[in-house]
Amino acid sequence: MSKEINLNQLRDEIYKIRDNDLGFTIQELNALTDIQLDDNQIQIHFDLVQPVHLISEFIQTECKNITKRLFPGVNCEVFINELPFEANRDFLKGVKNLIVVASGKGGVGKSSISANIASALSLTGASVGILDADVYGPSQPTMFDLKDAKIFAVEQPDGKSVAYPTEKYGIKVASMGFIMKQDEAAIVRGPMLAGYFSMLFEQIEWGELDYLVFDLPPGTGDIQLTLTQKIPVTGSVIVTTPQEIAVADVRRSISMFKRVNVDILGVIENMSYFTPPDMPDKKYHIFGEGGGKNIAHEYKVKFLGEVPLNIQMRENNDGGKPIVLADSENAQSKIIREITANIVSEIRKLNYKNSIENNLEISL
């Protein structure tokens, strides 16, 4: 059998691999860019919609399995390139994906979910930052053990100073808590709050990031409007608890984001149930059941998953290391990583949709 026929056979099999996030095959996506054969080594090259950190492992495994089946003993290398990214914004040009985490009301664990989503994204190999914009109660300094941290500035050769976020566990962190006094949030309102918030993305050099997670304050006020007016964000994640009083506020959040043309990546239901450590088959729905799933169905958005109550997660929040980083075997840790994978999938769908629309505009 000739080399050309072998490579054509390999190509035909690779074309059948399905990008499960986007629902299309490699052939339909025109994602296979090159196959090279050099002695006993096959190199396969792809261009894929970003972010690719999670899909890459699947594509590599599929390619290696196909190569092993067709050509036993032949080595296979897979190279995955991200399709070009263009930031159509005045700020944060080096950040590929901006995820806002919001809630209709306080007390639903939004900041805890934000910290763990950022942590789970970093575990995929992505470069990640988290911007704590909750002026009413900045929590990320506690959750990342950065209570005494400050925004630091470095003087440049031209005499100007550039501010940078701090870093913990490989994640870049900036918080309202770094620039405001502990009791200041109680007395600052309106435009001043929005001004503080703008400092965190207008004057801080975040550099190149795959994701920047915004931990927004609860509600639908000045901070949310300032963000959506100044920056085209990738999408929003809404955090709720199951009970009706929380779900009612979620409706307002979803309506606000829809009005300002921000895509909803999905809804996370936090504190969904409690499972006693000595009764792993039991689920107690302390705050009711199904509220998050119902609201997602009502607004035709993705239900990203349920996060149970767990004392270890609370202890880690207070102790300064998100549960996702502290204990990979913890049930909540596994669930949050699954939820994060769902978020990444939704982001890739949006990025693919936007790339198609941009190509159509160019061709017209």
Tell me the total number of β-strands: 15
**Over the alpha carbons, how many angstroms does the gyration radius reach?**
22 Å
Strand order of the largest sheet: 10-11-7-12-6-13-14-15
Low-pLDDT segments, ≥5 res: none
Q: Which percent bin holds the helix content?
A: 40-55%
Q: In CATH's first tier, which class of the largest domain applies? A: Alpha Beta
Strand content: 15-25%
Question: Taking all residues together, what is the mean pLDDT?
Answer: 88
Instruction: Give the number of helices.
Output: 13
Q: What is the annotated CATH architecture of the largest domain? A: 3-Layer(aba) Sandwich
The end-to-end span amounts to 45 Å
Question: What does the secondary structure layout of this molecule look like, with pairings?
Answer:
Blueprint lengths: L2 H13 L2 E2 L4 E2 H4 L2 E7 L2 E8 L4 H18 L4 E8 L12 E8 L7 H14 L4 E5 L7 H4 L8 E4 L5 E4 L1 E3 L2 E5 H4 L10 H13 L6 E7 L6 H9 L4 E6 L3 H16 L4 E11 L16 H8 L4 E7 L1 H9 L3 H4 L4 H33 L1
Parallel strand pairs: 4-5, 6-12, 6-13, 7-11, 7-12, 13-14, 14-15
Antiparallel strand pairs: 1-2, 3-4, 8-9, 10-11
Helix pairs in contact: 1-3, 4-13, 7-8
